[in-house]
Amino acid sequence: MRTIVITGASSGIGAALARHYAAAGTRLILVARNATRLERVAEECRARGAIAEAAQGDTRDRAAIRTLLREVDARTPIDLVVVNAAINGGGREGRVETEETAFETADTNYTGSLNVMLPALSLMLERGRGQIALMSSLAAYAPLADAPTYSGAKAALVAHGLALRQKVRPLGVKISVVTPGYVKTPMGGELKGWRPLEMSADRAAVVIARGLARDRDVVSFPLPLAVLARSVLLLPEWVRRISLSAFRFNKR
Ligand SMILES: NC(=O)c1ccc[n+]([C@@H]2O[C@H](COP(=O)([O-])OP(=O)(O)OC[C@H]3O[C@@H](n4cnc5c(N)ncnc54)[C@H](OP(=O)(O)O)[C@@H]3O)[C@@H](O)[C@H]2O)c1
Predict the structure, then answer these.
(1) How many domains does the chain have?
(2) Any residues with Cβ below 6 Å from ligand 1, and which?
(3) What DSSP string runs through 131-200?
(4) For residue 8, how far is its CA from the centre of ligand 1 (angstroms)?
(5) Exposed, middle or buried by CB within 10 Å (0-12, 13-18, 19+), for 223?
(6) What is the domain extent for residue 48?
């Protein structure tokens, strides 16, 4: 039995990954706040032959998430954790992001991710086996003026994930960072702006799962946007400002 935990599994990329991995011989633990949407995804996964549990929870609740992971792991050791839950943050109608939104975004996208990753890592280190995927974004490399805390949290996940990867690889735990470009999901739908090379969540799930199966350090896609984003910090600021102005957006 392969046990996979996915946070943010009630929607978008998390739900698509759940459906992708759903098969006989797989136990899926699906985490998100909205119980109705989560149960719907769990049902779809069961129809594909998986054992799927809808575990309603908020990744900002460190104690509850830790308890959940320990309970799941005691029943069947967790093979893969996809740390995926996040929110957009950003300011409304082009305004600067408020302090409240910034802290909510940092709490969800960075601290919330650590609330999942760190207890999972402890369990995996104890038995010397396991894999963790951290869902970052190409915004980690190309900071978006309209989503500053989102960009910062995603950059932190890249740095944190890659630093830990080096440390824990010899101890049997694999860590990958995933940096997607534009993916068609409810999160993307909140934003009004240019979304070049946008792909479906189902296609993104296939690319992510392939990268994880190959134990890639960074799973970056689509390639042209990934190359552009990953070179942007090498540019002088004025060139970067002009290049990134094409990617400005408004929150609906
Ligand atoms: N879509 C894109 O273009 C894009 C691009 C690059 C990276 N990403 C990243 O991909 C990941 C998935 O995004 P998506 O586009 O699929 O967005 P989405 O459809 O809005 O899904 C986000 C998921 O996170 C969950 N979530 C949010 N806050 C949570 C919390 N505090 N506790 C538990 N679950 C929480 C949501 O469920 P509930 O509301 O039910 O809790 C939902 O299942 C995110 O990390 C995002 O930053 C997306």
Answers:
(1) 1
(2) 7-14, 31-34, 37, 58-60, 84-87, 108, 112, 135, 137, 180, 182-183, 185-188
(3) EEEEE--GGGTS--TT-HHHHHHHHHHHHHHHHHHHHHGGGTEEEEEEEE--EESHHHHTEEE--TT-EE
(4) 5
(5) exposed
(6) 2-251
User: Domain holding 83: CATH number?
Assistant: 3.40.50.720
191 CA to middle of ligand 1, Å?
A: 14
pLDDT in tens, the chain (252 residues): 999 999 999 999 999 999 999 999 999 999 999 999 999 999 999 999 999 999 999 999 999 999 999 999 999 999 999 999 999 999 888 899 999 999 999 999 999 999 999 999 999 999 999 999 999 999 999 999 999 999 999 999 999 999 999 999 999 999 999 999 999 999 877 777 889 999 999 999 999 999 999 999 999 999 999 999 999 888 888 888 887 888 787 776
Strand partners, 54: 30
* Maximal CA-CA distance, the chain: 55
Instruction: Provide the phi-psi class of 221: left if phi over 0, else alpha when psi is between -120 and 50, else beta.
Output: beta
For residue 85, give both structure tokens. Answer: 């839950």
The pTM of this model reads: 0.96
> What SS3 state is found at 128?
coil
Q: Ligand 1 centroid vs 61 CA: distance in angstroms?
A: 16
